[in-house]
């Protein structure tokens, strides 16, 4: 299938606004052309530095600008991270995603994150980090340490961005994505719905993602988890069908990308999630916790996978990585 980076906003709007069942049907057709129908990629998240973030993202429990009652935590020890990664691997996760509440990593943080990447990678897992803005040299050093993916979301449309975050710009986000891409890392970038945005903003976000020079390999579609104490605490809940429409359009316009069910799953029924898989979602975060908020736990996901006949994807490792993995397992 031909992958397009020249989608117009009008084309995306037309896809988004078609009757729901036509949209989901088309998304499932595109999905089956590009992926195996019943396989889901599973990642696990861990917060390696929690809270007191200098950024003012209005949705976030970790921003120092709001009183969200979150208990802040300093950088956690690398040993602890490795123990969590091993546990995630044993429970069937193929990728380990480490997040820090920073505007950007300071140079003094680099040895810490680089060591962590090396050690998680040595377990035979795919590695992902989300640490805020990166400069070119930081992206390259992360790549050299064995980082596979970098998560950095565009979050919402360019027009709505300043209503949600004022401490950085949409172009700051695009610059970091450029550095990550130039370093040869895989990109994980998506957004949040349910911020009080309009349909036009969801369409605008999809348009930005699908017209990047190379589509992100992974596209998380988060649904707002309202956090007490943040400005978006009382925002009106978005219709689940709008979240599913966003997923379905993402699947159609970025046919080779993994579309990830991210935050917000805990509050959704199994049938809502089944509909999201039907709309082409094929990855998710497992475990009881996301970064700071509860997630549909492992037990609930096992039941969901078994009910729907879904299987977790095995990590995609090179032959050399697989032999390291086998050695680690026999040790
Ligand atoms: N600090 C880094 C950054 O912002 O790039 C990485 C961590 S941040 C928590 C990662 C993403 O999680 C955000 O871009 C946003 O899409 C999502 N997120 C954060 N808080 C959320 C919430 N309350 N509900 C839904 N998604 C949320
Ligand atoms: C993404 O798009 N969603 C994940 C991951 N990337 C880092 C984070 C969701 C965070 C939800 C709110 C919380 O747990 O603090
Ligand atoms: Fe900080 Fe990321 Fe939360 Fe924004 S989303 S406040 S950058 S941790």
From TrEMBL:
Broad EC category: transferase
UniProt xrefs under CDD domains: Radical_SAM
Pfam families given in the database record: BATS, Radical_SAM
EC code(s) of this entry: 2.8.1.6
Catalytic activity: (4R,5S)-dethiobiotin + (sulfur carrier)-SH + 2 reduced [2Fe-2S]-[ferredoxin] + 2 S-adenosyl-L-methionine = (sulfur carrier)-H + biotin + 2 5'-deoxyadenosine + 2 L-methionine + 2 oxidized [2Fe-2S]-[ferredoxin]
Pathway assigned to this chain's UniProt record: Cofactor biosynthesis; biotin biosynthesis; biotin from 7,8-diaminononanoate: step 2/2
Domain (Radical SAM core) ranges: 38-256
Single Gene Ontology MF annotation: 2 iron, 2 sulfur cluster binding
Binding residues for [4Fe-4S] cluster: 53, 57, 60
Residue numbers binding [2Fe-2S] cluster: 97, 128, 188, 260
One annotated GO biological process: biotin biosynthetic process
Cofactor: record remark: Binds 1 [2Fe-2S] cluster. The cluster is coordinated with 3 cysteines and 1 arginine. Binds 1 [4Fe-4S] cluster. The cluster is coordinated with 3 cysteines and an exchangeable S-adenosyl-L-methionine.
Keyword Cytoplasm on entry: no
InterPro entries linked: Aldolase_TIM, BATS_dom, Biotin_synth/BioAB, Biotin_synthase, Elp3/MiaA/NifB-like_rSAM, rSAM, rSAM_sf
Swiss-Prot/TrEMBL cofactor(s): [2Fe-2S] cluster; [4Fe-4S] cluster
Keywords for the protein's UniProt record, in alphabetical order: 2Fe-2S, 4Fe-4S, Biotin biosynthesis, Iron, Iron-sulfur, Metal-binding, S-adenosyl-L-methionine, Transferase
The UniProt record lists the keyword Lipid biosynthesis: no
NCBIfam families assigned: bioB (TIGR00433)
Assembly, per entry: Homodimer.
Function of the protein: Catalyzes the conversion of dethiobiotin (DTB) to biotin by the insertion of a sulfur atom into dethiobiotin via a radical-based mechanism.
Membership in a protein family: Belongs to the radical SAM superfamily. Biotin synthase family.
Stated name of the protein: Biotin synthase
Organism classification: Bacteria, Pseudomonadati, Pseudomonadota, Gammaproteobacteria, Moraxellales
């Amino acid at each position: 299938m031909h992958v397009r980076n020249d989608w117009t906003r009008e084309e995306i709007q037309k896809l988004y606004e078609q009757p729901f069942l036509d949209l989901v049907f088309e998304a499932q057709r595109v999905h089956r052309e590009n992926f195996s129908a019943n396989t889901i990629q599973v990642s696990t998240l861990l917060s390696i530095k929690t809270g007191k973030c200098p950024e003012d993202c209005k949705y976030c429990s970790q921003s120092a600008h709001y009183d969200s009652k979150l208990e802040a935590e300093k950088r956690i020890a690398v040993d602890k991270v490795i123990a969590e990664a091993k546990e995630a691997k044993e429970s069937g996760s193929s990728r380990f995603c480490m997040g820090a509440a920073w505007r950007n990593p300071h140079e003094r943080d680099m040895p810490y994150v680089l060591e962590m990447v090396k050690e998680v990678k040595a377990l035979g897992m795919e590695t992902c980090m989300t640490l805020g803005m990166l400069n070119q040299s930081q992206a390259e050093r992360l790549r050299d340490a064995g980082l596979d993916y970098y998560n950095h979301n565009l979050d919402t449309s360019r027009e709505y961005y300043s209503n949600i975050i004022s401490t950085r710009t949409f172009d700051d986000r695009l610059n970091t994505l450029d550095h990550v891409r130039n370093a040869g890392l895989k990109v994980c970038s998506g957004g949040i719905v349910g911020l009080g945005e309009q349909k036009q903003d969801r369409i605008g976000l999809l348009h930005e993602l699908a017209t990047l020079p190379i589509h992100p390999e992974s596209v998380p579609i988060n649904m707002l988890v309202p956090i007490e104490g943040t400005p978006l605490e009382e925002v009106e809940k978005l219709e689940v069908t709008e979240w599913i429409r966003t997923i379905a359009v993402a699947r159609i316009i970025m046919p080779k990308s993994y579309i990830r069910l991210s935050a917000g799953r805990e509050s959704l029924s199994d049938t809502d999630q089944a509909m999201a898989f039907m709309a082409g979602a094929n990855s998710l975060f497992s475990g009881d916790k996301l970064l700071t908020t509860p997630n549909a736990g492992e037990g609930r996901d096992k039941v969901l996978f078994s009910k729907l006949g879904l299987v977790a994807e095995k990590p995609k490792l090179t032959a050399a990585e697989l032999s390291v993995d086998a050695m680690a397992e026999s040790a």
